[in-house]
Design brief:
Blueprint lengths: L4 E4 L10 H5 L8 H11 L25 E8 L3 H13 L4 E10 L10 H20 L2
């Protein structure tokens, strides 16, 4: 079992009609059509996205998971499922730090050199990881 989870705008569900998919259908760099393309090109059929290794929000066996930091972006079709997964883990008793960053798009996390909110988010995630690994010693 991992010591800790750092999930940055995770794919955690298979519902492409969530509020964030609707709000960000045409967002750049990632919109609904882009996710539909990925599903069409990764899976033999769309039904495979229901696999419990992909559709994490449908799982009921989350209580044994390690703590997690879940990072979501306001302008991202994956936001709703990342937040839903974080809430499901919390409900199962998992310690979760959910960080939703307003005003940024998918892929912001890697832009700490030029996006202040990215730097602050990377720093927060790093602090969570340092704390988790210090406890594991």
């Amino acid at each position: 079992m991992p010591v800790y989870q750092l999930l940055v705008y995770p794919i955690a569900g298979n519902d492409m009609n969530t509020p964030s998919y609707q709000e960000n259908a045409n967002a750049a760099p990632l919109g609904k059509a882009d996710m539909e393309w990925f599903v069409a090109n990764v899976f033999k059929s769309k039904d495979q996205a229901a696999d419990p290794r992909i559709n994490l929000v449908a799982r009921t066996d989350l209580k044994e998971l390690p703590g997690a930091t879940v990072v979501t972006a306001q302008i991202d079709p994956l936001r709703s499922e990342g937040q839903a997964y974080a809430e499901k883990m919390k409900a199962a008793g998992v310690s979760v730090n959910l960080i939703n960053v307003e005003g940024v798009t998918h892929e912001f996390f890697g832009m700490a050199k030029v996006v202040d909110k990215a730097k602050a988010t990377v720093d927060a995630a790093n602090a969570d990881l340092v704390k988790a690994f210090a406890k594991s010693k």
